[in-house]
Design brief:
- Chain A: It comes from Ameca splendens.
- Chain A: This is Regulator of G-protein signaling 11.
- Chain A: Pfam families: DEP, G-gamma, RGS, RGS_DHEX.
- Chain A: Keywords: Signal transduction inhibitor.
- The complex is a heterodimer of chains A (about 475) and B (about 350).
- Chain A is mainly α and about 475 residues long.
- Helix content of chain A is about 55%, strand content about 5%.
- Chain A has a four-stranded antiparallel sheet with strand order 1-2-4-3.
- In chain A, strand 1 and strand 2 form a beta hairpin.
- Chain A is elongated, with a radius of gyration of 35 Å.
- Chain A starts with 12 loop residues before the first helix and ends in an 11-residue tail after the last helix.
- With about 350 residues, chain B is mostly beta strands.
- Chain B is about 10% helix and about 45% strand.
- Chain B has a four-stranded antiparallel sheet, with no helix packed on it. Chain B has a four-stranded antiparallel sheet with strand order 5-6-7-8, with no helix packed on it. In chain B, strands 9-10-11-12 form a four-stranded antiparallel sheet, with no helix packed on it.
- Chain B is globular.
- The chains are: A mainly alpha (about 475), B mainly beta (about 350).
- Chains A and B meet through helix 1, helix 3, helix 8, helix 9 and helix 10 of A and helix 1, helix 2, strand 4 and strand 16 of B.
Chain lengths: ~475, ~350
Amino acid sequence: MTINTLAKGGLHREQMSCFRKMEKVIVAMQDPDMGMKMRNQRLLITVIPHAMTGQDVITWLIQKYHICEEEALHLGEMLVRYGYIYPLKEPRCLVLRPDESPYRFQTPYFWTSTRWPATELDYAIHLAKKNIRKQGELMEYEKERYSLLHKRINHTWDFVVMQAREQLRASKQRRKADRIVLECQEQAYWLINRPPPGVQNMLDWALERPNNFSTRVPLNSDYYKSEIETSRRALGRNRVKSSICLEGFIKYSEQYQNHDPIMQGCLPSNPWISDDIAYWTMNSEIVPVPTRLRVERWSFRFMELLSDAMGRREFMTYLEKEFSAENLHFWQACEEIRHGESSKIVEKVEDVYKNFLAPGAARWVNIDSKTMDKTLEGIKRPHRFVMDDAQMHIYFLMKKDSYPRYLKSDLYKNMLAKAVVPQETKKSVFPFMRRQRHSSPSPAQASAQAAEEDGRAGTNSAAGSHF
Amino acid sequence: MGEMEQLRKEAESLKDQITAARKAVQDSTLQEAAAGITVVGRIQMKTRKTLRGHLAKIYAMHWSTDSKLCVSASQDGKLIVWDSVTTNKVNAIPLKSSWVMTCAYAPSGNLVACGGLDNMCSIYNLKGKDGNVKVMRELAAHTGYLSCCRFISDTEIITSSGDCTCILWDIETGTQKTVFAGHQGDCMSLAVAPDFKFFISGACDFTAKLWDIREGTCRQTFGGHESDVNAIGFFPNGNAVITGSDDATCKLFDLRADQELITYQDSSIMCGVTSLAPSMSGRLLLAGYDDFNVNIWDMLKAERVGKYMWKLYIPLENGRKVDPAEDSEGSSRVAVGTEH
């Protein structure tokens, strides 16, 4: 999905940019002056030149990029998982060990970005070579894949075998050390491109998006006619000046800045840092005393007041004093029709009519005659939006009339004065006293977990959670 | 053929007139309007929680309105509801189809939904009588993959699909109420307006559309992107649409001015945007990119004020591998450690 970076027929573009970045790091690592110090590593009786230890890699990353050890480990891991560095001992375990374990750079020939996607043919040749060399000592899954390939590309099987034999013959003429290196490189390449079952495929194929949308919609006269109609409507719309719009965003941001936890922090403390959920508890839907910021927000916009359960409650109290509470009751009843179950619509509309709209109704709401007529007509065939116009009328009535007076009232002012401003909790002096949170085990892993846990001791990084 | 050519010319001319009308209201630039406001300092983001448990790529996640619970969908065939504070798993729901691409949490907290290559949206009731989470409805009508779904209430949900349409469903009866057709490419994402009267969708035809839920019509179309629109969201006051695209930019389209007002781009960013979320005040925009980074933008100055590289934790089998910032919204809570 990167722009202007089509790779091999446009596939896997999304990961190309990452590979380019990784390759830059790899090239820097091999720089003769500023790169890593290589040494010879002993593998059984052979000496492998140009190898480095896991610890070397991490140290170099820390120094070069001024990052912490954790991040260097993570970055190094990625380089191993994507095949740019491979381990010499335990080649199947693609992990970066921060110790004396030897690693080597993968040759650019086998870089993921240059040889992608790996073809069936190449894989078949690789397995055939292995088969010939080790005489039927392929791993189980390799055997399965080998026979599958044999069926699938049977027509070129002679070519496969011939190539395999040729490559083996050519490699026999190399020095043993070189041969081992090449085998390691090839094996590392295939571990990434054809991972064994159970191992995550790092190069997994994302969803293909056929983008030839122009062929989906036929560009005929019907299409153009509807385009013309839409455009005519669009041309007629009212457009607000951009200066006013931009001004609107700026004012909104300024007004809400103190209320935005990312900008301003939150009191008493940020639950993500302190593990104390007081901030959320104090701001839950119904509390004995709301926070000051919350009550302040009620004065920003009418919708803020109405969408807050406590705000609505307070407003209702005020309206009752003014003998206009039926407006809010009506508005709430309309909301329930709009968002409630379809099966209850007819019943609810009837209730609303009886209580609010019928002549002599107990809580009659004052709607202009035009809207009333339209609504009454609509009620004959009730649907979810039948009350929209009436609801809008009452909404604006409350917004223009009752709402501003509410904000000036003693009721609101007292609420604001009573409202809580939480104290900022002091950071605890002993950080290690923070509770460790134990995450519940994944249900899919109940049995595998026990075995893995032994092998994983000490590799779980801290975030306060572990199995 | 003469008639069609005439129609085509008329359509073109109308489009040109619209462009001119939009230009006519451009009386200010962002630089001028935002000249006086104070600069936002650099924003540092840190990982605060890591939720481990998925076994394969996580394609989507969505927060609950209580800020503590969230649901994530992974291609290991599971939908997991997390208590993100304790990192406990509240529910682990096995899915019939493992090719899930999206998930959603209902505002009430009672339901979750998911869907993907099965072309269906499955609704699960979290608060069932016997405590088990069961499939409540399977909404099937799309002829393409389900790319996104969002609840309006416990009775209504909107879905967007690779078949270029969006559908409003009645969950109770499991039927489609309205089909929103008009996009000419796969619909990739959608967002519902704060007042629940409109919703916006972004698609592979490089446009974003604003739909009237009640009328079932497209009110406005916003073009300008040079590639697929992957992510979309509303500015908190509901007056603007923010989009993220494969062309490596995010754009802000104002609904009242009917045009793009701001573009968020940087010459060093060359990969697509996969998800985005504005902060509560609308001052900051967090956007997730294909190169595993989350960039934080000052929305009013159109400058980058922070960057976060998503981490892959060892060991991978037990770890949470996050598809590059599919959960940017989540990352603002998980990675940043602050509200919203």
